[in-house]
Structure formats: C-alpha cells, structure tokens
Write a structure and sequence with these properties.
The complex is a heterodimer. By secondary structure, chain A is mostly helical. Chain A contains 14 helices and four strands. By secondary structure, chain B is mostly beta strands. Chain B has a domain of about 170 residues. The relative contact order of chain B is 0.21. The interface between A and B is medium-sized, with 28 and 20 residues.
Chain lengths: ~350, ~240
Amino acid sequence: MKTKILILTIVIFGGITILFDACKKSDEHAISSGYHPTYLTFKIPAGWPTPPIDIFKNNPLTEEGFQLGKKLFYDGRLSKDGNFPCASCHQQFAAFSTYDHQFSHGFNNSFTFRNAPPLFNLAWMKEMHWDGGINHIEVQPLAPITDITEMAENIENLLKKLSIDTAYPRMFAAAFGDTTINSQRMLKALSQFMGSIQSFNSKYDQVKRGEASFTLAEQNGYTTFKAKCNSCHTEPLFTDNSFRNNGLSLDPFLKDIGRMRITGKPSDSLVFKVPSLRNIQYTGPFMHDGRIFSLLQIVTHYQTGIDITQPTLDPLLKNRLSITNQEKVDLVEFLQTLTDDTLLHDKRLVEPK
Amino acid sequence: MSGLFLSNCNKTTTPKTGTIKISFRNLVGTQPILLDSSIFSNKFGEKYSITQLKYYISNICLINDKGKVTEKESYHLINQSLPASLSFTFTVEENSFSSIQFLIGVDSLRNVSGAQSGALDPLNDMFWTWNSGYVMAKMEGVSPQSNQVGSKIAYHIGGFTGVNSVLKTVQLDFPIGKKLLVEQGKVNEINLEADLNLWWQHTNNIKITELPVCTTPGEMAKKIAENYSAMFSIKEIVNN
C-alpha cells in the first residue's frame, strides 16, 4: 500500500512538473545568452578526515547541477516502466535507504539482490556497493538503472526520454552550458546531488560540538562503542570503509559471496563493506541481505551469533564480542543518537515540485 | 636588437602538421568478416560465426629513433558493425616514424575516473555496470561446439587492476626501409590487419568446447588477451 501511494505521488508530481515547465518557456532565451552557473562549495565538517578523492574535482558542484541531479533522482523515467526512480529505493525519511524492507522492489515484481544502503557522506566512500564493485560515484547509477531487478532501463532509451521532456534541455543547459543531453552529463548531475547528501548533525555530532549532552545510558553506550565497535565503525563516519567478514552464515538461497564476486579472491569470500552506523535507527533491516531486523539483534549477533568457523572471518571477531546485556541496551541507546533529523527533513533534498 | 629579430623569426615558424589515417581490417586468417554469416574454423577445427566484434585501441603513439609522439585523448572503439569506426585520423607535426605503439583496451586511470564520453561512453555497451571497468575486447557469436543456450559464444575480456589486468601494449615496426612520413597537406596511412583466429590459439589454447563463455576478469580472460595481443600486423604504410 505504502509503495502504491509513493508511486501515485510520483506520477502526480511528474504531471505537475510538466505543467509548470510549459509556463516557464519564456526563460529559454535568457539561458542561451550566457552560461552563469552558481558555484557551490562542498563543506567538510570540522575535524573530519579529507575525502580519499575530490569527487567534485572534474565535476564542479553548482546549484544548477545539483537541481538537475535532484530532478533525475526523483524521476521515474530513469526506469523502464516509469515506476522506479532512484528515490523509490532511496527514501529521504529512511536516510535514503528503503524503509522497513529487507529487499527493495524493482521492475516486474522483482526483489533486489541486496538490501538498499542509505546514501549520505558518499564523498568519503571510495568504493560503493556492498561488494565494493563500483569505483567512482559517477558510474554508480549505471548499476541500478540497468539492473533487471531494479530500474531495468537501458541508457539509450533513457536519454531519449529525457531529450523529449520540456524541462531537461533547459536544465542541462543551465548546469553544463548547452542543451546537449548525454550519459556523462546525466551521471555527473546525479553525482552532484548524491554527493551533496551529508549527515553531520545528529545528537552525537551536537554532543561532540558541545551543543548537547548524552544521557547516562547514551554515555555508557558510547563508552562500550569506543571499546568494542569503533575499530571498524570508526568515528566520525562510523565506518572505516573497509571490507570484512563479520561472521554471517552463507544464505543457501542467495549464495551471496560478497566481495569475492568482484575480486575473484577466495580470501574475499563472505566479505562485505562495513556500513556506516549513522541513522541506523531508520536504515533497517540490517546487513547486506537485511536478515537482522532490530538494533538489539545486531548486538546479539556480535555477542553470540558470529560463525567463528569461517576461514575469512575478520580476526577482530574471532572470539565474538564480549558485551553484557546492560552494555547491549546502552549501546542501542547510543546508536539512536546517530539519527540526523537535519538530513531526514532537509527541504533541499525533497522531491522537486 | 638580436632578441627582437629572434622573436620575429619564431612567429613565422608555427610547426607544420600533417594527417595520419589509421585503418583496421579484421579477418579470420585471410577471410574477411561478414557478421552473422561467414563461417570460420579455428585451429582446433571448431566452427564459429561472429555476431559482434568490438575492441578498444588507446594511447596510440608513433615512434622514431628520436622518441615518440602520442595522440591526444587517444581512445578509439573499433566496432565491426560500424564501418566508420574502423579508421580514424589525427594530426601530428611534420616528422617521420618507423613504428606504432598502442594499448588494446582502456588504461587503468580512465577505468577509475568516473563518467566518460565519446568512445568511452557507457552507451557503447563496453562498460561493466556491476563491477566498474571497461570491457577491453568483446567477441560474440555462435558455434555448434558451444554447450550454451542457442549455441552462443561470448568473450567479454576485461580487468584492469593488478593480477587481473588484461591490458596489452602492442608495438609494430613498419616494414624495413619503410617510414611513415608526416607532411603538411597530406593524409598518409597506416593500414593494420587483425587475425581473429589468434583469440583461440597463440601462447594459450582456448577451445570453444571447453570455454564457450568468458565474461569476468581473471585467469581465462588473461589467457585470451595474451592470445589476441598478437593478432595485429602492418598491412602497408602509404605515403600519398
């Protein structure tokens, strides 16, 4: 039901967009008279590490590029049947993951292969996807757009659909200088929008900046976190962006071997990306296949659930984690301080009208 | 006074350039390739036809005994189904050369540099979307020896990092005593041939019965790349 409402909303808004554009036609010659994008600065929060590469170095961040990227992100036409914009699996109220879904829904009543990860702080993520198969943010959208269980579209068709739209030629010109619509520009615009989604204003961040304080339970949870979790879920990103086997058994149906699918190395069998814990309150179900449904169950996995017989198990987990039940409850309290309401409600990231 | 004289002199000597045309002719042995129809036989007597053939040629440079000149933004996709893609031109300062060097595939840097355009546009269906990187060479076809659905054969050869790299640099010397001249106002030509039968046998034996499909980076892709790296030869150098 929820999905239906979402799709309906998208269809209705899509219609409104076209109406609006018809009214705005008079703008067109203003743009052709000169290319004057508004350059934006990507801010790195104080005390944060420098991103491994500058994702905007060859793709200067502009207001026009961001707005174009946002329109594309919310546009169902990027999918074969029009029902699956990027935003259908990456919902803002779930920190741009799929809310309450083990797997997301894709074209032709498919389930996706893996749990949709949230999208934020991507400028720090050198390799994307659970298996690290994507080596640059700009080429990431090619995967979901063309995957037959996701958006199931081909790039040629998609560009045709964009070029007959009334708004896109104008928006591509505003973002890139002329009305040419090609895959490179589409991908760069999407990258400007996705790369601009940041999370750095959770209660945890406010405490770190001296603007708020933890409750006793949260403080105790933070102490446990620093002792038991921080070596992989490293602050301030709450991930070290490495790939590790955290001792989940192989699902006999999915047979997902993780990073070995990309590298071909047996040492990468069952190895997956360490996800950020930011906004974890809203990004469940958890793990690459969404097999864990609550924050308490996550901690239980590390207490007693790790399969210590796996040869590729991360050495840090070979004795599982010794966490008392009191520490477990406090840890969950702490994890909820990583929820960033600014991100969840940022009007700038909302579907354009 | 002399300084002024020199700078005047420099102004009149903007370097003269000529055009080089490079053409590729894909063959099996001496047989020309008609997609979907010609039937070929590899060294193991396995019959096959080709439905699709594409490969990247990049980082082209021309070499003489003083050094080498590299084509700028040198990325070309040779696509058997698009005759216009089988030759291309670029301009070089006047000179003479005795060899050509190029990479089969796309250099590793461009595999990790985000969205590209032109020959490297993902629209060309030579980019792996789930495991970022270019397919360096692709051959698809049909063979009665294939155990796949529709007797299909498919070789998508890629991989650019570390031990999985299939990138091959090819250097071809022009025939002895023959130099390629670059002269203003002229289009001089390098005509290359590629013998596709080398995909199956050169340093490695690749039998269709054993390997009808290879679409991931790794050991087999590397073996096929080693084989096809020897498929090019200089047909002729034409100084018009």
